[in-house]
Structures are given as structure tokens and as C-alpha cells.
Amino acid sequence: MTPVNLSEEQKAKLEKKIKDIIASLEEPGSWCNLTTVAHKLRENDIFYKEYGFARLTDFMNEFSNSFELRSRQNQIEGAPSIPEIRIKTGNSDSPKQTNNGTSYTGTFGKKTYNTPKHNKPSKRFFEWAFVDKAKIEDLAENLAIREKWYFGEEEPAEPTKKYMILIKYLIHTYGKLCDEKGIFESKDEEGEPLAAFNTGLVDKKYEYIYALFRKNKNQKINKEWWLAGFFTAGSDWGGKLLVRCFNPLPPRADYFKGSMKYVLYEPSSGEFHLDYDHILIENCRRLPAKFFENNCRPDDFTRINGLSFSDAQKLDEDDERSKEYFKNFQQKLMESDQNFRFAKQLLEQAVEIAKKRAEWNYKTAIPMYFPTLKKMSFLLPLSLLVEGQVDVALVVEKLENGNYQGQTILPLDWAYSNSRLITKPESDWLNTNNISNISGTTDESLNTETEPTNQATPIKEEPAKTEKVVHATTTIIKTIQPPIKAQVFKPDEAILARIKRSQQQAQSRRFSGTFNTKPQSPKPPQNTDDDNMPF
Predict the structure, then answer these.
(1) Confidence label for 41 from pLDDT (cuts 50, 70 and 90)
(2) Residues 59 and 69: beta-carbon distance below 8 Å
(3) DSSP character at residue 530
């Protein structure tokens, strides 16, 4: 493509229009997702390809005096880096931010809340608070309705992989609540700061589960808060503390905004359109290798510098060979009208079948929240190789005028994680059993160097003969017997700690309401970040 020559006056008008669009999306000096900008440009009838540019980044570089671009590493496993843009200011340096971002304050009656606002999705839950891995496990195993939080049929040995879906759920739920000012703050009777949010998960009685935090006072841990635990309102010491100190209780994230019309597929509503360039070229890596290898001509079309498409797809995305391969392949496919048209035709056939499937059974279209764009949409299954075998999910947005826009495609594990933010998908094509780690690479941030412990606050002193056991409404002096040494086998410390925690929870339920002594919360973490979820 040859860029269109614009007069200085035309370029200045276009530049001002783009600047106004970006300014409407973010605060001054903040970075904005370039994908979001692309959608807004189209809504305002600015099409960069009409100006002779194949990529939006090349188009924006024409206005380098007013805008600056960068590529940010994605925190989601296997995901490509995220291009971002912002309006240049007088100081070229990025604005400094604290760990918890900018704070916004307000009031609910006599209670105050303080919602951290992060300009980027990467500023997430685990940068804001110290979270002991054992509490994530306790939430999944003992409090929330039982659910499978990993992909595939075989249960992973590592806890961070076993609860991978739950971890992503908490990250994006926290991010959504930041946008909605749904992270509430208050103080207890002694004036100690508290924070809480509604996880959106429920227990067996369908009571909402809340995350409760206390202010971190340990200078060795660079977090503003530490997670005291997960509780239902009125239960256990934390649940009673929530009821006493928060009025009203934090609401769950609102994804639908009172309307379901944007997540249902109605064939008679409007026309269906696809972003072919974005799906087939820019996101070609997400498509099955055989989709190109079996259909492109000549037969060696996909082989570049000794690598086939499947070879490059298996490489880590940050591998320079992989980057170079897909850059060349995208250019090659863009220049091959025959192969692009054939790929487009195959994609359209798969979409038509998905639309008919959704028309026959409305449950085929699965509601999904897209954290990057902060929009509701729905997912349709695309079978590109074998009929009935779903390869990727198509993200569809219903527009204000009733038309449907196929925005992008997602690997099935990403699609499930995004749809799980709203509710657990009850689907015949999107479930954890038939999804493996198909997105290619594993997010190394989910791995830990040390095994997770089941105690967030290890006590340095020698164990005493008596221990103060704190319950929901009572403090009891309980005699502690020395540990029993097993003669046949010796369970590991993690199992013993879990048994002890279960016994304490049983005691808490047994003695709840017996006395009128003020409850106390556990001590803050004394250790380093070793047990914090590494995000």
C-alpha cells in the first residue's frame, strides 16, 4: 500500500480528531489500548487503510509529534503483547504511579470507600494485596460451590495451575470492580482500615462470598493490603466484621448493566460482519496450523526460512524466530489474493454453521466479558478443520443499530476464562474437560519457585502449651497437645496444616454465639512474598 499524501491542513484536522478520540478514552497522560482506539476510529469514520496503511501502528506513527506508542507484555498466558498509545505531554517521561494506582474516594452513608483505579489491566489484584496461596485453595475447596478450576481431564499437581481459572477470575473481577468503584473501604471499631469486595462467587447456600483485607504494616512486603480471608456475610469472625463495618455490603460486578440484548444472537436483528484482516492476518497464530498448511497453494507456501507454520506456532511467542516467521507469513498472506480469499471463504463457512447452530439452540452463543475492551459480547464456536470439533471461539459484538460485528478469535481456554467472569458456562462446546493448554505457551507467572505453604503467618516463637483460639464471637483458651508422631507414615506439613485449619473452623461453628467477647482477626503476614501469588 502507498500512503496517501495529505495537505498540512488535512493532516492537522485529522490529528486533532484522533487526539479528541483518545482523550475521551483515558485520563491525561494515561496509556490506552490501541485496539480500543481502533474501534473508536472506525466509529468516527476514520479508516487507516483508506489512507494507504496496512497497520494502525504505521498510521499512528505519521503523527509521532502528538502520540507515542509502546508494546506492553501481556499477563495472560500465551497472549501477544498489547500495543498502547497515549497523547504526548510536555514531559516525555511516564507519569509515576504507586503500587495501588490512583485513588478515588466517596461515601455510602457513614461508610467510606476508596477504589484504586489502574490505567492498565496489568495493575491487578496481586499487585494491590498480599494473597496467601492457601487462602485461594481454601476458597476453592472449602467455601465456594465446588467447581473445576483447571483445563483438561488430569488434575495438575501445582496449586497455581490447579486453580488457574479461579486466579484469572479474581484478577479480572478485581479489575472490573475497580472500574465500577466497587472496592469498598471502612474501619473497624479500633480504627484499623479494612477493604472488601464481592467476589461474585457463592457458597452452597448461594450466599455471596466476600474478600476481606486489612492494611499491610509489614514493610518487607511491598503491598498496600493483605488478604485476611474469604467470608460470607454474618458467618465466622470475618463475616460478622463485614456486617458491622460495611453498610451496604460491596455489590458484585455488573456486566449486563440491566440489559441482556447484547449477549443474545437474534438472526433477524441485523447483518453479520467480520474483521477478516484482524482474524486471518493479525491473529493467524491463533488459528490451527493445518488451516493454512492444508489449504494454501503452493504446498510450501507456509514454509519460510526452513520453518513450517506448525513449527513456528510451537515456539514461544517471544522467540525471535517465531516473531520473524509470523511477521513474514502475515505479509505473504496479505499479498496472496488467492490464498487470502480461500481462507476467507473457509472462515465464512465455519461462521455460517455457527450462526445456524446458535439459531437452533440459543445456548450456543455464550455471554462473555472482554476485559481488554471492557465490553460485553458473546462467543460462537468455529470448526475449521473437522466438523463438530471446535478449534477457536469467535468474539461477536452486537452493535447499537442491531448489526453484529465479529471482532476477533480466541483460543478456547481464553474464551472460557473470559466467559467465566459472568457465570460458569453450561455448554456442550466450551467446558474445561475438552480444553487443554491450546494457546501454545504457559504463563510463567503462574509458576512458583517454592511450594506453597498453608500458613500465611508462621509463628517464630516455640509453640506454647496453651493457645488463644479466636472464633466468631468468642476467645477461648484451648489446651494444645503436642503433635502425634505417626509410626506407619508421616503426612507432610501441608496436610497437617489443612487438618488443623479444618478443626479450627469446626470449633468456630460449634462455639459461635456462646459468649459476647469481641472477635479478633488473624495476624498480618510476617513472611516475605514467597507465599504471595506471583503476579
Answers:
(1) confident
(2) no
(3) G
